């Protein structure tokens, strides 16, 4: 599992860099939303369909199918042709290459603000891991494991809908990425805050369904802002450094959220998480929008 996670960690930064390389700036929001919609659709279907396959075919055959699909995916990647923008070989040493992404994150004002928001949001993001959501369903909603599945399914359905919404709004978002990202973060935080108070399972389901579009608007706007910040080679380093920071935060968060859930209760954990998410949105609004530090991320014209 460790080896699988290690190599899986390569995928997201490189995928985003490939999109940056092959999609023009004007179509980038649309491309990101389309890819995300496909991802979320298969995640939504996969949870149910995967269980059906295991029950009918057994785990060995299901793993064989998964292995075949991975090979098919790798084969499809060879079809993608990325035009090299530069033939110049880097003469930096190993240490310089390893730390390049971290330096860019620290030097660029806009990226630095987004990463701080990311860390705040990643810290509370573990409230959606299985153990915490199951505790919420049982203690706050008074329901069993079936409703745990409904909650997860509603969220993925919401992210599918959110991806299509962003696809339709892509032209409107060009040049307004900062404010859309902040709006998505704020709505996600507000919905999480309200979610902590509810006892009606149907209302909880509706709130989770609405969280999906909110998160997608925030996430896809942010993804495009990162892609606008640098060329594809530099972007891979930036996203890799960001990913490492987020994963470290999540490791610490899993322990902290688990302890807090035991001490103060699952409701209060969701309420406090909503407050922190809204604080993150307010922090981004002040720095990215009011102080204009996000302007350089709205287009490629000011890339690093």
Structure commentary:
This protein is an all-alpha fold and 304 residues long. It has a single domain, classed as MFS general substrate transporter like domains (Growth Hormone, Chain: A, Up-down Bundle). 80% of the residues lie in helices and 0% in strands. The protein contains twelve helices and no strands. The mean pLDDT is 86.
Topology:
Blueprint: H1 2-8, H2 11-22, H3 28-57, H4 59-77, H5 94-107, H6 109-125, H7 130-139, H8 145-173, H9 177-195, H10 201-229, H11 232-264, H12 266-290
Helix pairs in contact: 2-11, 3-4, 3-8, 3-10, 5-6, 5-11, 6-11, 6-12, 7-8, 8-10, 9-10, 9-12, 11-12
Radius of gyration: 20 Å
Query: Kindly, what is the distance between the CA atoms of the first and last residues, rounded to a whole number of angstroms?
Result: 36 Å
**Global mean pLDDT:** 86
Low-confidence stretches: none
What's the helix-strand series?
Answer: HHHHHHHHHHHH
Number of beta strands: 0
- What is the highest CATH level, the class? Mainly Alpha
CATH superfamily: MFS general substrate transporter like domains
Percent helix, as a range, is: over 70%
Summing up helix and strand content along with how strands pair, one would put the structural category as: mainly alpha
Q: Count the helices. How many?
A: 12
Task: Please report which band the strand proportion falls in: under 5%, 5-15%, 15-25%, 25-35%, 35-45% or over 45%.
Answer: under 5%
Q: Can you tell me the overall shape?
A: globular
**Structural domains: how many:** 1
């Amino acid at each position: 599992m460790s080896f699988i996670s290690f190599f899986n960690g390569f995928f997201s930064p490189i995928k985003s860099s490939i999109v940056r390389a092959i999609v023009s700036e004007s179509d980038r929001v649309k491309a990101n939303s389309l890819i995300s919609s496909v991802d979320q659709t298969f995640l939504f279907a996969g949870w149910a369909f995967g269980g059906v396959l295991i029950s009918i075919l057994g785990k060995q055959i299901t793993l064989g199918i998964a292995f075949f699909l991975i090979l098919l995916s790798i084969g499809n990647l060879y079809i993608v042709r990325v035009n090299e923008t530069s033939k110049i070989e880097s003469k930096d040493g190993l240490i310089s290459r390893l730390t390049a992404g971290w330096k860019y994150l620290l030097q660029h004002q806009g990226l630095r603000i987004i990463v701080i928001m990311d860390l705040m949001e990643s810290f509370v993001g573990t409230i959606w891991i299985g153990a915490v959501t199951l505790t919420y369903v049982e203690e706050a909603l008074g329901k069993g494991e079936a409703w745990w599945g409904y909650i997860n399914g509603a969220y993925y359905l919401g992210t599918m809908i959110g991806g299509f919404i962003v696809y339709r709004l892509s032209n409107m978002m060009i040049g307004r990425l900062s404010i859309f990202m902040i709006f998505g973060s704020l709505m996600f935080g507000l919905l999480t805050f309200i979610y902590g108070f509810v006892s009606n399972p149907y209302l909880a389901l509706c709130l989770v369904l609405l969280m999906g579009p909110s998160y997608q608007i925030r996430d896809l706007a942010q993804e495009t802002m990162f892609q606008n910040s640098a060329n594809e080679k530099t972007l891979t380093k930036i996203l890799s450094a960001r990913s490492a920071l987020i994963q470290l935060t999540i490791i610490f968060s899993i322990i902290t959220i688990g302890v807090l859930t035991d001490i103060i209760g699952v409701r209060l954990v969701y309420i406090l998480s909503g407050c922190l998410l809204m604080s993150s949105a307010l922090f981004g609004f002040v720095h990215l929008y009011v102080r204009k530090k996000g302007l350089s991320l709205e287009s490629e014209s000011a890339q690093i």
